[in-house]
Amino acid sequence: MPLQNRVIPIYRRRHRGYVLIVTLGLLVLAASLMVAVSRGAMRHTLAGRLAVDELQHHWGVISCRAAVLPYAESILQAAEKERQTASPFYRTRVQLGDENFDLTVADEQAKANVNLLLDHTDRSTAEERLRQGLSGTGMGINVRLRPSASPLNSPTTAPTPTTGPRIKVVEAPIGLPLWITGFGQIFEDASPERLLTMQGGVRATDLLTCWGGGTVNLRRITPAGLQLAMGTKMSGVDQSRLLDVRNKVLQGTPLPLPTKGPVDKDPILRMAKAAGVDPKSFDVLSALTQTSTCHSLWIMANDHRRTWHYFTVSDQTEREQPRNSAFVW
Q1: Residue 68 sits in the same domain as residue 152
Q2: Are 42 and 154 in the same domain?
Q3: Among the three residues 53, 72, 91, which one is the final residue of a domain in this structure?
Q4: Which residues contact 288 (CB under 8 A, 6 or more apart)?
Q5: Domain residues for 191?
Q6: Domain tally for the chain?
Q7: Are residues 57 and 99 in the same domain?
Q8: Three-state SS across 197-208?
Q9: Is 12 a member of any domain?
Q10: Looking at the structure, do residues 116 and 222 belong to the same domain, yes or no?
């Protein structure tokens, strides 16, 4: 039988799943790219939100400081007039946006000055007095004075050159030497948590300062602060009597007139005489005043994520050379 030409069909295998696999791969790649883009957008959004919060926090602190600290004396006087009692500090809270600001305005001259203690006694004796005075605050055992070897506010000296142009040496105002310029030189642990902890109804920062020139504002100082500042220079009985007369004056009771002789021009001396203070203690009355030129402001800012602490002191004791000290935790 003759062979005939026959066409033998060739069957090719159809890869129907190839398109599906490529499509799935493209979808996975697109999804990965979208996730990366989304994460980048979220990071940028979070960074922008944090930048806005940081800017708001920064200007909130600046605004609180500018609106409160220059008027600290007026704020304390208004509090005294309203309460008719000594007001060495005033606390309040304000809210700016989503952030809370706890403010504490204080009269630094209504506290015992550690520099005055060091200027009148040695370091170990000053530490012992501080431990006794701060025992109720829980900070007494934390006291460790580290005064500077070259305190501020002392005369500036320099050798006179023998050749070359003449140099004029400017002397700093002679006053109370600033052996201590911050809480870190007073306490082993000067964190805000320790300084601002209320124990025994008082805080360490309510009793102690290292600013203000050394004079004590009798109008505002607390009994514990006066005892720490005076020590043994005035008996505890005389201190209590003097503060009782001070409180009556703040409540509007006038001082009694002397039975004979002219009226003393010094109101503090008049209060001491009206209180029956021992005349032997009259010499220490020169360290007392009724005005203040040094104030401070604590700002505790909380944005519900963390807390910042800011402490600023405005010391106008030397009007020609005012000092401002700022600390942040």
Answers
A1: no
A2: no
A3: 72
A4: 215, 216, 217, 218, 268
A5: 75-158+167-328
A6: 2
A7: no
A8: CCECCECHHHCE
A9: no
A10: yes
The label of the residue with tokens 């070897």 reads 149
What CA dihedral angle connects 206, 208, 212 and 218, to 10 degrees?
60
Cα distance between residue 157 and residue 258, in whole Å: 50
CA distance 124 to 219: 30
d(CA 292, CA 218): 10
Which of 72, 90, 106 delimits the end of a domain? 72
d(CA 132, CA 113): 15
Q: For residue 210, what are its two tokens? A: 């290292």
Q: What is the DSSP letter of 99?
A: E
In eight-state DSSP terms, residue 231 is T
User: Is 275 among the domain residues?
Assistant: yes
Residue 9, in any domain of the structure: no
DSSP 244-299: HHHHHHHTTPPPPPPSSSPPPS-HHHHHHHHHT--GGGGGGGGGEES---EEEEEE
Within a domain: residue 10?
Answer: no
Q: Are 65 and 80 in the same domain? A: no
Same domain for 228 and 316, yes or no, is yes
pLDDT tens for each residue of the chain, 329 residues long: 555 566 555 555 555 556 777 787 888 888 888 888 878 888 877 777 777 778 888 999 999 999 999 999 999 999 999 999 999 999 999 998 889 999 999 999 999 999 999 988 899 999 999 999 998 888 888 999 999 887 876 443 333 343 343 333 333 344 688 899 999 999 999 999 999 988 878 899 999 999 998 899 999 999 999 999 998 889 999 999 999 999 999 999 988 877 776 777 888 999 999 999 999 989 999 999 999 999 999 999 998 888 999 999 999 988 888 889 999 99
Task: Specify the DSSP element, H or E, that contains 96.
Answer: strand 89-96
Based on the domain organization, do 62 and 137 belong to the same domain? no
**Residue 169 CA from chain centroid, whole number:** 34
Look up residue 123 and give its two tokens: 């370091």
Q: How far is CA 226 from CA 3, 56, 70, in A?
A: 132, 40, 26
Q: Answer yes or no: do 87 and 54 share one domain.
A: no
State if pTM tops 0.90: no
